[in-house]
Amino acid sequence: MARDEKLDLLHGIPLFSGLDKRQLLRLGQLTDEVDVADGRTLMRQGERGDELFIVIEGNLRVERDGQVIAHRGAGDFLGEIALVDEGPRSATVIADGPARLLVVGHRAFHTLMDEFPEIQVIVLRELARRVRHLESDQPH
Question: From CA 91, how far away is CA 78, in angstroms rounded?
Fold first, then answer.
């Protein structure tokens, strides 16, 4: 992928839309683009997690204890919980059709959080939203 194309792609992802060109260039250095086939398992519940996945195109199915609990599509990100707390994956994620993803590894994720506080805030808000959704019957 050409550098300008990758920058346009990164800018189009809600998580990164507030970054300026310099920040997007740095982010481009920290991410890898991958194509995944239908049915590929990206992460397994209970296993150690080393990557954050950002969906460029396609759909991913999120399962917990064998039950589908969510679907994620373009612009969504997954895998941040295991990177934040360095614990096991909280769900299994499977490509539901071919998909194109950006992958941010463990070291790059922490570099990203250190260098871009605005992304850190977005990730924390999304974590809180997901917890609130999962525990909707609990007071917050």
Answer: 10
Residue 72 structure tokens? 């994620």
Query: pLDDT (tens digit, 0 to 9) for every residue of the chain, 140 residues total?
Result: 566 777 777 887 777 777 788 888 888 888 888 999 999 999 999 998 888 898 989 999 999 999 999 899 988 888 877 777 778 888 999 999 999 998 988 888 788 778 878 778 877 777 777 777 765 544 43
Query: For residue 36, what are the CA distances in angstroms to 8, 58, 140?
Result: 21, 9, 37
pTM metric for this prediction: 0.78
58 phi-psi bin (left φ>0, alpha ψ -120 to 50, beta other):
left
DSSP classification of residue 37 = -
The crossing angle, in degrees rounded to 10, of helices 117-134 and 106-115 is: 110
User: In order of start, what are the domains of the chain with their CATH numbers?
Assistant: 3-134 (2.60.120.10)
